[in-house]
Specification:
This protein has helices at 7-13, 21-38, 46-62, 66-82, 86-89, 98-118, 188-198, 207-210; strands at 126-131, 140-145, 148-152, 163-169, 172-173, 178-180. By secondary structure, the protein is α+β, with helices and mostly antiparallel strands. A hairpin with an 8-residue loop joins strand 1 (126-131) and strand 2. Helix 2 runs antiparallel to helix 3.
């Protein structure tokens, strides 16, 4: 059922109280909902466009320098890269939270790629893939190599065991499965030492040297 209201039009024509970014953004989001209920295209709605301008004015008052904003955004991005969300997400179920699931497995793939490089695995000889699974599933990320398999999950049945790994022969599991905490995935030296003491040399140089 589609029906229209006056709310967004009234807000757009009388934007008193929308001087701050939170207030202007709330009004814009409410207007988008109104538009959808009315079955009208958002891009052509005059009230939506006026409220976007109101939001832009509020942003301009809050931070008029675009170059300063870009510098702050670069700094914020660097802070996120320096402190991956893997540790914050680990231990929790991400089934049903697609953003958390996607973030975890994206960062797990990056961490496994750094680990493979650190222990001397030729990237052309390894595959790193994620299987996100159904909405209610947490998904898995794996590194597959002729000599080793490493599997990462957001949550395990046992504490400090989000990583499982085992020796392989020609890519097929051929040894005991070992467990490790997710924190070691971000500390390649610590993980390399664990690999050296459990499954031995995989890449080149030897794991003991890479540690």
């Amino acid at each position: 059922m589609f029906y229209d209201t006056l709310y967004r039009h009234n807000q757009a024509l009388s934007p008193d109280g929308l001087e701050t970014i939170p207030a202007a953004l709330h009004a814009l989001n409410a207007a988008v909902d109104d538009c959808r209920r009315a079955g009208k295209p958002i891009a052509n709605d005059a009230a939506i466009i006026l409220l976007i301008r109101t939001l832009a004015d509020a942003a301009e008052r809050s931070a008029p320098s675009v170059s300063e904003l870009r510098q702050r955004c670069v700094a914020d991005r660097s802070a996120v890269l320096a402190s991956p969300a893997l540790l914050d997400i680990a231990g929790n179920s991400v089934g049903g939270d697609y953003r958390a699931k996607r973030t975890f497995h994206y960062q797990a793939r990056r961490a496994l790629a750094r680990l493979a490089e650190a222990i001397g695995i030729d990237p052309d000889t390894a595959r790193i893939n994620s299987a996100l699974g159904a909405d209610h599933e947490d998904g898995t990320t794996e590194l597959r190599h002729a000599g080793i398999g490493i599997r990462v999950v957001p949550r395990s049945f046992l504490p400090d065991s989000e990583i499982s790994f085992n020796r392989c022969r020609n890519g097929e599991p051929a040894g005991k499965v070992h467990l490790a905490p997710i924190a070691e995935l971000l500390d390649t030296a610590a993980f390399a030492r664990r690999l050296a003491s459990t499954v031995g040399t995989v890449g080149a140089p030897p794991l003991a040297v890479a540690a």
